[in-house]
Design goal:
about 325 residues, alpha+beta, Beta-lactamase, about 40% helix, 13 helices, 9-stranded antiparallel beta sheet, globular, 3-stranded antiparallel beta sheet, single chain
């Protein structure tokens, strides 16, 4: 992972460079052209939760447009949510539509990411897992399509086969397949193919009957960004500050975004999995491409320039030093 990686973020404490995060960046258009990069844009990565808009679109295709889901319900299907009360209520509403209880979820028992919400929870449960919205959407898809609900996580399940085909079609590459943290299949692709997939979220012409589902998923993320992450989450904050961007965080410090009107996708991967470096790098790249203006940048200061603390006060900073090369 570090082979070919470039310095992306410096950590400075009291004037001393204390750490450097290495990684990779790929910026691609809907035709798969590599527009800019840092490090190795062909670095293989698991797409992890950045796949969720695609998984949600496939689920929506199986659910059907007659279902009339709310923007909140669709957005939480795309989410790695905090487990705040609003997120949990929305996941429960999806399960009720399917005629199922939270016991049908196959997410591992977990506690909310949000500390305030976690303090109110007595014990870990599948409902609080950050992927429970995605899983609830998958369960609703299975019920509407007449597929088994108990085995929906298996690679051989009809829903997961459709997801695999769609990821391959959007990215232009045949994915490697593993198992994600929540138990569903996870897809491995070169970083540039991930950026291409994100560019095509807003231009899914090749997806046939799924085109309306992609429009619906992207529209819901824009309309209800708080459902996608929540309090103090960088993807929620970026979408709130710059509504012409759709962004999604993924595990092991993979962040992805699409500049909607320009059809340009961005994928950022921090080699050591350090989350603190991914958000600042993504904001830097989006600003470089003019997708984040000065007003939005001011709103995003705490995410773009997070302080290094000593004794509870700022004593340093994270500096983005990524140097993008252009095609």
């Amino acid at each position: 992972m570090t082979a070919g990686a470039a310095p992306l973020v410096r950590v400075v404490r009291d004037g001393l460079e204390e750490a450097v995060h290495l990684g990779h960046v790929a910026v691609c258009d809907v035709d798969g052209r590599l527009l800019a990069w840092a490090g190795d844009p062909q670095q293989m990565v698991f797409v992890r939760s950045c796949t969720k808009p695609v998984q949600a679109a496939v689920s929506l295709g199986a659910i059907g447009s007659a279902e009339q889901l709310s923007d909140r319900q669709v957005a939480v299907m795309c989410a790695s949510h905090n487990g705040e009360p609003l997120h949990v209520r929305t996941v429960r509403s999806l399960l009720r539509r399917a005629g199922l209880t939270p016991e049908a979820l196959r997410t591992p028992p977990d506690r909310p990411i949000d500390p305030t919400s976690a303090a109110r929870v007595r014990e870990a449960a599948p409902l609080f897992h950050n992927c429970s919205g995605k899983h609830a959407g998958m369960l609703l898809a299975c019920v509407r399509a007449g597929w088994p609900t108990s085995t929906y996580r298996r690679r051989s399940h009809p829903l997961q086969r459709r997801v695999l085909d769609t990821v391959g079609s959007l990215s232009g590459r045949e994915p490697a397949v593993g198992v994600d943290g929540c138990g569903v299949p996870v897809h491995g692709l070169p970083l540039a193919a991930v950026a291409t997939m994100y560019a095509r979220l807003v231009d899914p012409a090749s997806q046939g009957d799924l085109v309306p589902a992609f429009v619906r998923a992207v529209g819901a993320m824009r309309a209800e960004p708080y459902l996608v992450g929540g309090r103090d989450r960088v993807d929620t904050a970026v979408m709130q500050a710059a509504p012409r961007i759709v962004m999604k965080e993924g595990a092991e410090a993979l962040d992805c975004a699409v500049m909607i009107e320009r059809g340009i996708g961005v994928a950022v991967k921090i080699a050591d999995g350090g989350y603190r470096a991914a958000g600042p790098t993504m904001i830097h790249v989006l600003e470089r491409f003019g997708a984040i203006d000065a007003a939005a940048r001011r709103v995003l200061t705490s995410f773009a320039d997070p302080p290094v603390l000593g004794g509870g006060r700022p004593v340093g900073r994270l500096d983005v030093v990524a140097e993008l090369r252009s095609a």
